[in-house]
Specification:
This protein is mainly β. 14% of the residues lie in helices and 41% in strands.
């Protein structure tokens, strides 16, 4: 199944493809909880983001991944990490207004106390192969 969405202003559009039942996660961290984030990923799926402008990148915590934010409307849309599998990520189904998914129930997660290596290995095994196309900065 292919799910499509876009940020509030339309600068960022996404296609998330998965053949699995979508299971959403909510992280209790301050960044995600303050934005109502619901994340989805499938290591066998596909995630494609297209942005008509260069996205804002934000790194915090372990500084191992880029949290991608629309430069116009400020919506957090996805997280991207380089891995041995290539670029991988998770999609924020609320920020990208994916109607078929954003109202599904979620599982609360807490990543507090997770070591950097544990975090990276978890992502490598669970995150979705990702392709990002964005306009270059002027």
């Amino acid at each position: 199944m292919i799910y499509r969405g876009a940020c509030h202003c339309g600068v960022v559009s996404a296609e998330y493809e998965t053949n699995q039942t979508v299971r959403l996660r909510q992280d209790g961290c301050g960044f995600c909880s303050s934005r109502g984030v619901k994340s989805a990923s499938d290591p066998e799926g596909r995630l494609s983001l297209v942005a008509t402008k260069r996205l804002t990148r934000y790194r915090f915590g372990h500084k191992t991944a880029d949290f991608l934010v629309c430069p116009d409307c400020g919506t957090y849309v996805a997280t991207l990490m380089e891995s041995p599998r290539g670029p991988i990520g998770v999609v924020n189904v609320v920020g990208l207004q994916i109607d078929e998914l954003k109202h599904l129930p979620t599982t609360m997660t807490s990543l507090e106390g997770e070591a950097t290596e544990e975090r990276m290995q978890r992502r490598i095994t669970r995150w979705t192969p990702m392709h990002l196309t964005e306009e270059a900065a002027p």
